[in-house]
Each structure stands twice: as structure tokens, then as C-alpha cells.
Design goal:
about 35% helix, 4-stranded antiparallel β-sheet, elongated, alpha+beta, about 160 residues
Amino acid sequence: MNNNNNKPFHMLDDFDIRILKMLDKDGRMAYSAIANEMGVSNTMIHQRIARMVEQGILEGTKPMLNEKKLGYDWGAFTSLSLEKDHDSQRVIEELKKIPEVTECYFITGNYTLYIKIIAKNHEHMRQLLYEEIDNIPGIAKTDSIIELGCAFKRNIIL
């Protein structure tokens, strides 16, 4: 199994791209339904998908949750400046302990990390920012912007 998902992978052929497009429309689509639609065997679909998972092209089959429907009405994007950039891994491990921090990116510029936070309401967001995130040792400064809604979210177009 390829443990380095940043290594180059073989070029996707038209067959792989068709499979990925079907899964992008419905990630729960049964392999047998994909096979029937493409006129090939279930085994061939299983092998292709297993290879793309091994290469890191497909990263799982988790459902996309609608945070708003689950009662999380507030979102924020927060930039984090660290006291020392070499503390980033320790800070990341602390951020992982906060379930409402749903994404974390390394960035360039005046900040080191960029995170997405979801909260139930403004008081919950205040508590997350000021009582949890700001108290993580190594964080020097935060800068947040409130999300007013997602215009769209998608995978890369193949």
C-alpha cells in the first residue's frame, strides 16, 4: 500500500474518470450499479476503486453532513499566528481535540494556520474562540471572519 499520498500516481484513464464522476454524484452508489451502468464486472469496479483508494485519489466514503440542519448555524474562518512556527504540530494536535474545528490548513503570509470552525450560535462561537482556541499554548494571535453561508462546495472537476 502506498502510504505517501503526495507521490505522483498513474494518470487516470477515461474509465477511472467515469467511476469518479458517478461517485461524485452519489457517493453511496453501489459498485454493482456502477458496473451495470458501465457494462463491466463488479470485480473490475472493485479493483479500480481499491487502486484509487490505495493511491490516495479517493480518501474514504464519509457522508457530507449539513451542519445547519444539525443546529450549527455559525461558521468562522480563523487565521492563527503562532509564537513559534515549529510549534505548529503541537497546536494542530490541540485543535484536533476540538470537534467544532472541522478543517485546518497551513498557509503563507502573516499567519501559519487557517481553520474552519462551526458553532451552534454566537455564544458557542465566542466560547470556542476565546476560551478554547485562544488558550492553546503557542497561539500568539487569531483573526476571525464569520461565514454567512456557503455559495457552493465541490470536488475538483474532472
